[in-house]
Structures are given as C-alpha cells and as structure tokens.
Protein 1
Amino acid sequence: MATMTLDLITDDPNNDEFAVYLVEEGPWDSDPRQRLVALQKRLYDAFDVIVEGVLASKYPDSKGRRFRIQVNSYNSPPESVLNLVRKFASFIQENDEYRESIQKSPFVADLRVVNGVDIGRCKNSD
C-alpha cells in the first residue's frame, strides 16, 4: 500500500469509537472532480489501513474497537463532496465483500464513515 495520510487519529470515548479524521479544505473549484477522485482514494486507503490492521500495529489500543472515518470539509464544500462520503458509507455497508471484510477482521469491531457536516461537527455555509 502506498503512503497514507490520516490527518488525526483519536480515541472517542463518548461514542466508544476510535476516530480517524480526513480533512479536506477549500477553496473548492467549480469543478471538483479531481478532488473527489483523490478523496475517494483516501477513503479506500483509510478503510484498508483499519481493516488490514496497519493502524492497530501503530495504535495497539485500537485493535478490535469500533472505528469511525470522519471526513471534515471546510470552506463550504460542494454537495458533491458530502455525497461522495455518504455514498462510500453506504457502499461499505451494502457491498458483500466490504461488509464481510469488516466482519472478519480481528482489528475492527465495526466501521462507520461520516462527514462532519452531517454529524454537526463542521458547518456548511452554502
């Protein structure tokens, strides 16, 4: 696996999750396709790092825990960015291969993907 940048990794006792943050900042171009492709790659890479145990090797307290990948987007992200995160979250829960890889991994009890706007942690002024 190529080098992966996770912007912040924390233990979130309020939600009983280990949180992995990906930060995407604007300004956003009128055509964010390249940024969407890059974000999608980051989401898949973060998924792999968690499910394959790479993160657990560096953070042993995370092993077997519930995880949250949270994409925080600032400077008024376009709806397409928020929708990409929503669709990715649905995909990993609905796709048999991805759902099964979460269930069979000894490194993660569960995994959810959210964007900061939907859970009220980032403000979208659009």
Protein 2
Amino acid sequence: MFADEINETLDSWTSKIPGAGNSAEMQQAKQTQIVVNAMIGNLGENVTAGEISKLDRKAKLKLAIACKKPMDEVNSVLESFKQMEIMHRILRYRKENGVALPTDQNGLKMAMKEDGMKVMTGQEKVEMRKAYQKSARA
C-alpha cells in the first residue's frame, strides 16, 4: 500500500502541471519510490513494519546498494513506512470501534495520541519512547 500511495502521488494531476514536477515534494516522492521499489524487490510485496524493524545492518546495506541510495535515505523511508503502517492500524481500529475518522492533520495527530498505544506492539512503543527521548534532548 505504501508503494501505491507513492505512485499515486507521482501520477496525480498536480504532477502534470508544468514546473510542479520539479517541486521538492515531487522530487522527494521520486526518491522514495526508488527505495520502495528496491524494498519490494528485496523484501517482497507484503513486507510488514514488524519485519522491517527486524532488518539488520547487512539487510539494510543490501537495500541501499540495490536502490543506489545512501543509508540515511533508506533508513528515512523505512521509518516512514513503519509510521504509515501504524497510522493505518489506528484508522482501522477507529473504524472497527465506530469512532470518527480524522479529517485533517490535527485530527490525525489527536487520533495518534488517543489510540496509538492501543494498536502499537510493545517493541513499537519502546522505539517511540526512545525516539521521543532523543528529540527531547536535541
């Protein structure tokens, strides 16, 4: 689904506007698409965030070589993938429980706060706490 969303961004009508294809957002989407395609090629179409969390340095290095991108860019895309999967789980949880779905960015942040801990695994919670502590120090 992550690959589909990237492809949809690149195929949207806004990318057809002269000059819009060179915007920073479109360039970032193109770079992300390269990494995602390499990820699909190396890890399969149905890879999950849990499987990505278990990738060791060697597997990530192979992925970086396959897509010819630096390791920090690969790590950034992998982190985005994990965050998107968590967001999808939160949205599914809210839909299954009859809770209103968010309609904007602020609503999505609120849903993350309210329901994030209910749908995340123990490992994901630990990783989020570490990331929060890192950002608080910086």
